[in-house]
Amino acid sequence: MTDEVKSLVYNWLIAGADPRIGLRLFCDHCSPKQSVKQLVEQNPGKHIQIIKTTLCRIAEIDMKSIIRTEPTQLVTTSEKPKRKLRDDYPFLADPTCPPELKIIIGDKITTYHNYCAAYEKLKAAKTDRDHLEAVSYLVDQYLKNRAISAEMDHYKEHGKVLGKHPIFEEYKKIKQYRSLPLKDLVRIKINLENNIYRNQKKIKTDKRTDLRIQRENNIRRQQMELAEIDRLLE
Questions:
Q1: CA-wise closest residue to 43 among 71, 75, 81
Q2: 91, 155 in Cβ contact below 8 A?
C-alpha cells in the first residue's frame, strides 16, 4: 500500500470519516467484489463500519490509534415508523396470491434479522477471518433479501410473478408429494427430520461461513418440504 493512500485514509478518519468520501476511497483502493460494492453504495452511512475496517486493513492503520474529531456523517435516512409487510404488499391477503410468494415473505423477515446480526458481528470482528466471514454472510443475506423484494415488487406492479427466485422450482417438487402414497410420505418425513437435525448441529459446531450459508439454505428447503408433508399426513 502506498504512503499516499495511507495518508488519504488517515486524514479521512481524523476528519470525521464522512461516508461519501469513504465510499470513494473504498471503491478506488479496496477492489471490492461487485456484490459488496453494491451493498455499500446503497447506503454508505449505514455501512460505514465495512468501509472503515476495510480501508484501515488495506492501509495498515490501527483504528484505535486514531484521534478523531466528532463524526460528521450525513443522515441519509430518517427514522420512520416500522411498516408491516402486508402494508407494502397487500396482495398477500388475496386468495389468488401465488403460494410461492406467501412462502418467501417469511424468508424476507429471516434474512433481514440475519443481516442485522451479521452487521453487529462485523463491528465486533477482531481478526481478518472474522471480518471476511461477517462480510460474506452479510452480503449473502442482503442479496437473498433483495431477490425476494424483486419478486414481491414485480408482482405488486405487474400482477404476475417474475419467477427468478429458487422457490418456484422448489415448490414444483413440493407439489409432487401430493401424489405419493402414505408410506412414502412417512419415510420422507423421517429423512427430512434427520437431515434438518444434522444440519442444525453442524451449524453450531462448524463456523465456516460458506458451509453455514449452504446448510441454512438446505434447512430452509427441508423445513418447507416437511411442512407440506405434515399437512398431507394430517
A1: 75
A2: yes
Quote the pLDDT of residue 181: 94
Identity of the amino acid at 160? K
- Mind listing the pLDDT tens digit for each residue in 25-49? 888 888 888 888 888 888 888 888 8
Total residues found in the chain within this entry: 234
Give Cβ neighbours of residue 173 (< 8 Å, ≥ 6 apart).
Answer: 225
Q: How distant, in Å, are the alpha carbons of 47, 123, 137, 183 from that of 133? A: 16, 12, 6, 42
pLDDT at 71: 40
- 217 burial level (CB within 10 Å; 0-12, 13-18, 19+): middle
Mind listing the pLDDT tens digit for each residue in 202-228? Answer: 998 987 888 888 999 999 999 989 999
Q: Which residues of 95-122 are buried (b: 16+ CB within 10 A; e: fewer)?
A: eeebebbebbbebbebbbebbeebbebb
CA angle 230, 114, 62 (to 5 degrees): 160
One-letter amino acid of 140: D
Q: Helices in 60-98 by DSSP H: which ranges?
A: 85-88
Separation between Cα atoms, residue 214 and residue 218, nearest integer Å: 6
The model's pLDDT over 62-73, given as tens digits with 9 standing for 90+, comes to 766 664 434 433
**Average pLDDT of the chain?**
83
Using CA atoms, how far apart are residues 234 and 223, in angstroms rounded to an integer? 16
